[in-house]
Amino acid sequence: MTNYNEASGLMAFWSDIDEDYLQCFQQWHNCEHVPERVSIPGFLRGRRYRAEDGRAHFLMMYETLTSKALASEAYLAALDSPTNWTREALTHFRNPSRNIYQKVASLGSEGHFCATWITALRFNRPNEMDSQAVAAWLETMATQQGVGRVQLWSVDEAASGIKTAERRIYSGGPGEQQFLLLVEADAAQPVDHKVLEAADAAVPQGGERQHDILERYWLEIFHNAPMT
Questions:
Q1: Neighbours of 180 (CB within 10 A)
Q2: Structure pTM?
Q3: pLDDT at position 209, please?
């Protein structure tokens, strides 16, 4: 049985989708794109989350054994050889942002089912974060009722910056935020203000959060990699 807590690589892709293409997007992503991606060596699972308010705004994620899988020959070959359906779908992405991440720290564990709700905080820090402050930050989140797992990720800038045929279609690039905090929960949780308050604990003296983007999503689909 796959242990998803061991994943140390992550691809996260945020995008709005044209409203008149929404159903076609879901069909493409469910039936072709995610199954194709999770069949690539090193990929463990694909997930798609939708904005809490129901807008056509999505967080698409792939977990991998390491971030190296997200710069592998097999993955880059797929990115440089999009199917006709993929070529069509990507033209309906709006305000896209895509990053490759390496795991910095994690607390808590996933249950028998992947998280049905996620709070995502994208942010920068002007200085290095203290490891003890980071640990306290994650603990603050992980001890909230209903929270199962809290993870902190850092951008892999080299992998995130690779230009591919797919990127040329959707015309997006890496986001400007260096870090991603994911707070996973089994139900909608009013954790927004707690996330921000806890973030202050990880800021070095004299620093401040920069360019925060805080959003909450509910799970729309997930697809595990084929068993080997």
A1: 21
A2: 0.91
A3: 56
